[in-house]
Amino acid sequence: MSKAVFKHYDQNQSYLIPPSWEEKIISSHPVRIVNKIIDSLDLIKLYASYEGGGSSSYDPKMLLKAIIYAYISNIYSSRKIEEAIKSNIYFIWLCGGSEPDHNTINRFRGKKIEQYLKDIFRQIVLLLAEEGLLNLKEVYVDGTKIEANANRYTFVWGKSVKTNKERMIRQIEELWQYTQEIAAEELKDTEPLSFKTIDKEKVDQTIRNIEEAIKNKQIPKKIKEKLKYVKKNYPNKLEEYQVKETILEGRNSYSKTDTDATFMRMKDDHMGNGQLKAGYNIQISTNNQLITNYDVYPNPADTLTLPSHLESFKELYNQSPVVITADSGYGSDQNYEYFEQNKIDYYVKYNYFHQEQRGIRQKKYPFAAEYLYYNAEYDY
């Protein structure tokens, strides 16, 4: 019976000539593609953002390579990226032996690169277009909602803010009308007040006028208590609502722990069942299954995002797409008009197109005639 033979194994064996990391990485490995693409980018604006003086900085090109390769390797934690840079052969080669820590990685991928990221993305897309892997004339648009890393139970509703302000206005109007009834003489030289819009200063002024007019009058206890409550609470509340309305910017809600996130209905399972969660509406344009543009919106309706998304496409590449394809979630009178004005061919149904073709649903909206015109040219 032959004796088993084992390959030589000795952990303490040293090399006369140490092996090169370059030799250990095959030519077709994705890390080489990342390296080649980033090396071909124009990063002059990113380099110019660094100020002189103090300690030397890590090369931003190296940090960018490490982060992009980490992301395509499904590594997102800054501490895990730091660990990979120290122990993973591909990261060691990519970083040239440099070992930035997790704080450096977080600072770089945060505010440092934020304003340059879209330009870097644009350059990569143009490289892919030059290689013939995609074209910028035909785009396919779709969106998805991504849950924010925010507390889902701490929220502000725009409707609630509006309702509370209206209630406050009614109560102040009632107090003012009552004062006019019992102290008309005292108020004859007072400038008329309008309560269509109110703020902290107007409430303060109104309360001062009321107090001055009724100071020698016999006032029911209930009115006195209401006036005291209004004086104590309403000015500060109105200031708080003003801040909330500024944050809302026309949205219906926001999360207190991430004020940019809006509450949207998320699909949690394959049946589409879900609940309201703080999130973002991500709009993506693609060609040949490669992303050509992306935008993040706080509003949940896809219909409202399309013109803005196409304008950002034009801004990136100094041209509009020639043809656009999207699902019925983008079908609206305003969007069809935008396509016509910008001479874009489009394949975009509206929600009830197929039902109308089968006679299941009648055209009940005012722009049905325009829809028929917009869809007449295309065979769905």
Give your account of this protein's structure.
With 380 residues, the protein is an alpha/beta fold. The protein folds into 3 domains: 21-133, no CATH class; 156-251, no CATH class; 262-376, no CATH class. 47% of the residues lie in helices and 13% in strands. The protein contains 15 helices and 8 strands. The chain has helices at 21-24, 30-39, 44-48, 60-72, 78-87, 89-95, 102-114, 117-130, 158-182, 200-214, 221-248, 306-317, 333-341, 353-357, 368-376, and strands at residues 138-147, 155-157, 253-255, 262-265, 276-287, 290-297, 323-326, 345-348. The strands form 2 sheets. Strands 1, 4, 5, 6, 7 and 8 form a 6-stranded mixed beta sheet that branches. A two-stranded antiparallel sheet has the order 2-3. A hairpin with a 2-residue loop joins strand 5 (276-287) and strand 6 (290-297). Helix 2 (30-39) runs antiparallel to helix 4 (60-72). The protein is elongated, with a radius of gyration of 31 Å.
